[in-house]
C-alpha cells in the first residue's frame, strides 16, 4: 500500500526547510547568483537544522528522518535557492554513502563532520576530464604503499570541491573497467591535493564547481570505504539516491518558475485583460502544473521504495529524467509568459531558467537516465 500523505515528521522536516529557505535563502538568491558567493554561513545553519543529513541516523549527527522527508526538504530549498541546494544534496548523498559502506570507525569519525557543519559540506569526486557518463573508465589511481594509499590523477566538475572538508574520491586500484575501482575518503588539506579555479557557470552560480588534482597524495591505510574493487557499485548506489535529490531540486526550481509565471500573468494585461485569462497562457500553466505533479509523484515513488529498502534504480532514473526535463520546459514557458521582461535580470525567472539547465546534465545526463531505464525495461 503506497501513501503519499506525509507523516507528521516528514511535514516537520518540510516546514523546517521551507521556513529556512524563505527567511535565509530567498532574500540573497539573486545576489548570490550575481556575485557567485558560496553560501558558507547558510550551510552551517542548514547543518544545525539537520538538513545536511536528512536520512542520516541521529547517532551520526543526522536528522534521522527518511528519503520522503528528503524529497520534501530539497524541493523547498531549491524553490528559493537552487545553488545552495546542490551543496546540500551532494552532502546528503556523500554522508549516506559513508553510513552505508563505511566501517563503524569511519562512520563515527566522518559522518558527524560532514553533516554537522564542521566540514561545511562534502564533495563527490567521480568524474574526470575525459570521463563523465562512462564512469567506469576513470583513470585516477590509488596505489598501496607501506605508508597507506597514494592517489594520482585529476577530477573534474566537483561540486563544492573547494569548500568541502570531506571529499569522496574514486580511484583505480585494480584492472581496467568497473571492477577495478575503489572508493576513498579524503580530508581537505591533505598534502598532494590541489584545487583548480572555480568554473564560471551559466547557472547555479552560488555553487562552486572545481577541478581537483592529486599528486602523490598520501592517504591513511584506512581511507578506503568498504571493500577494494567495489567502488563502482558504491558510486552507483550513491547516485541512485542522488538522482532522487536532483529530481527534487528540479521540482523546486519548476515550482518557483510556475509561481513567478502565475503572479506575472495575473498582473500583466494585454488588450484590456490580464494575460492569465488568455487560453494560450492558461495552457502553458496547465502543462506546468501537470508536469510538476507527475514529477512529484515519480520522485516520491522512488523515495518510498528507497525507504522500504527495495530496488529503486529505475524509478530514481525516471524521476530524475522527467523532473529535470520538465523543469527546463516549465522555465522556458515561464520566461515566455514574462515576454521581454523575463529575458532581463530584473525578473527571477531569468535565473531559474539558467539554474534548471544543469539538472539534465549532472548526476547522470538524461541520456544516461534513458540508458538505465531502457536496460531495465527491456530486461524485463
Ligand atoms: N546499483 C548497484 N550496482 C550497480 C548499479 C546500481 N544502480 N548500476 C550498475 N551496478 C553494478 C552492476 O551490477 C555491475 O556489477 P557487477 O560487475 O558486480 O556485475 C557493475 O556495477 C557495472 O555495471 P554496468 O555494466 O551497468 O556499468 P556500465 O559501465 O555499463 O555503466 C552507467 C553504467 C549507468 C552508464 C554508469 O556508468 C553511470 O551511471 N554513468 C553516469 C555517471 C554519473 O551519473 N556521474 C555523475 C557524476 S557525480 C555528480 O554529478 C555529482 C555532483 O557533483 C552534482
Write the layout of secondary structure elements.
Blueprint: H1 8-35, H2 40-48, H3 67-80, H4 82-101, H5 104-116, E1 122-125, E2 141-145, E3 148-159, E4 166-172, E5 181-187, E6 193-195, E7 209-219, E8 224-225, H6 231-267, E9 269-270, E10 273-274, H7 279-307, H8 313-338, H9 348-357, H10 366-379
Parallel strand pairs: 1-4
Antiparallel strand pairs: 2-3, 3-7, 4-5, 5-8, 6-7, 9-10
Helix pairs in contact: 1-3, 3-4, 3-6, 3-7, 4-5, 4-6, 6-7, 6-8, 6-9, 7-8, 8-9, 8-10
The chain binds acetoacetyl-coenzyme A.
Acetoacetyl-coenzyme A is lined by residues 86, 90, 124, 126-127, 132-133, 135-136, 159, 178-179, 232-233, 236-237, 239-240, 313, 362-364, 368, 371-372.
Per CATH, the architecture of the largest domain is Up-down Bundle
CATH C-level class of the largest domain is Mainly Alpha
Mean pLDDT: 97
| Gyration radius over CA | 21 Å
Sheet with most strands? 4 strands, mixed
Helical/strand content category: alpha+beta
Q: Which distinct ligands sit in these coordinates?
A: acetoacetyl-coenzyme A
Listing every helix as H and every strand as E from the N terminus to the C terminus, the arrangement reads HHHHHEEEEEEEEHEEHHHH
CATH H-level superfamily of the largest domain: Butyryl-CoA Dehydrogenase, subunit A, domain 3
What is the CA-CA span between the terminal residues?
23 Å
Broad shape: globular
User: Which fold name is given in CATH as the topology of the largest domain?
Assistant: Butyryl-CoA Dehydrogenase, subunit A, domain 3
Low-pLDDT segments, ≥5 res: none
Give the number of DSSP strands: 10
Strand order of the biggest β-sheet? 1-4-5-8
- β-strand percent reads 5-15%
Tally of separate helices: 10
How many domains would you count in the coordinates?
3
Helix content: 40-55%
Amino acid at each position: 500500500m503506497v501513501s503519499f500523505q506525509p507523516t507528521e515528521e516528514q511535514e516537520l522536516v518540510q516546514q523546517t526547510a521551507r521556513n529556512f529557505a524563505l527567511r535565509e535563502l530567498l532574500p540573497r538568491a539573486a545576489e548570490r547568483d550575481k556575485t557567485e558567493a558560496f553560501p558558507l554561513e547558510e550551510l552551517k545553519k542548514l547543518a544545525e537544522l539537520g538538513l545536511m543529513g536528512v536520512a542520516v541516523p541521529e547517532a551520526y549527527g543526522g536528522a534521522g528522518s527518511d528519503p520522503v522527508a528528503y524529497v520534501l526538504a530539497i524541493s523547498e530549498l531549491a524553490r528559493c535557492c537552487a545553488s545552495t541546494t546542490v551543496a546540500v544534496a551532494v552532502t546528503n548523498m556523500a554522508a549516506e554513502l559513508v553510513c552505508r559502506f563505511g566501517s563503524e570507525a569511519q562512520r563515527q569519525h566522518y559522518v558527524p563532520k560532514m553533516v554537522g557543519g564542521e566540514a561545511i559540506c562534502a564533495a563527490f569526486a567521480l568524474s574526470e576530464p575525459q570521463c563523465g557518463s562512462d564512469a567506469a573508465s576513470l583513470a585516477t589511481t590509488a596505489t598501496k604503499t607501506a605508508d597507506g594509499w597514494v592517489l594520482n590523477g585529476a577530477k573534474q566538475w566537483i561540486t563544492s570541491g573547494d569548500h568541502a572538508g570531506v571529499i569522496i574520491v574514486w580511484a583505480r586500484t585494480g584492472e581496467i573497467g568497473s571492477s577495478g575501482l575503489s572508493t576513498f575518503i579524503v580530508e581537505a588539506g591533505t598534502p598532494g591535493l590541489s584545487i583548480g579555479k572555480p568554473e564560471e557557470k551559466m547557472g547555479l552560480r552560488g555553487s562552486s564547481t572545481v577541478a581537483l588534482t592529486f599528486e602523490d597524495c598520501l592517504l591513511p591505510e584506512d581511507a578506503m570505504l568498504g571493500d577494494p574493487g567495489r567502488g563502482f557499485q558504491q558510486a552507483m548506489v550513491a547516485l541512485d539516491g542522488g538522482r532522487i535529490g536532483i529530481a527534487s531540486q528540479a521540482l523546486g526550481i519548476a515550482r518557483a518558475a510556475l509561481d513567478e509565471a502565475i503572479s506575472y500573468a495575473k498582473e500583466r494585461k494585454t488588450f484590456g485583460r490580464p494575460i492569465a485569462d488568455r487560453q494560450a497562457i492558461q495552457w502553458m500553466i496547465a502543462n506546468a502544473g501537470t508536469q510538476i505533479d507527475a514529477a512529484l509523484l515519480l520522485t516520491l515513488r522512488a523515495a518510498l521504495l528507497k525507504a522500504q529498502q527495495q530496488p529503486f534504480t529505475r524509478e530514481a532514473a525516471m524521476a530524475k529524467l522527467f523532473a529535470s526535463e520538465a523543469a527546463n520546459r516549465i522555465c522556458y514557458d515561464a520566461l515566455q509568459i514574462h515576454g521581454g521582461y523575463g529575458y532581463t535580470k530584473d525578473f527571477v525567472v531569468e535565473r531559474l531558467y539558467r539554474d534548471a539547465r544543469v539538472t539534465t546534465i549532472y548526476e547522470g545526463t538524461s541520456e544516461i537516465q534513458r540508458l538505465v531505464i531502457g536496460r531495465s525495461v527491456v530486461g524485463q
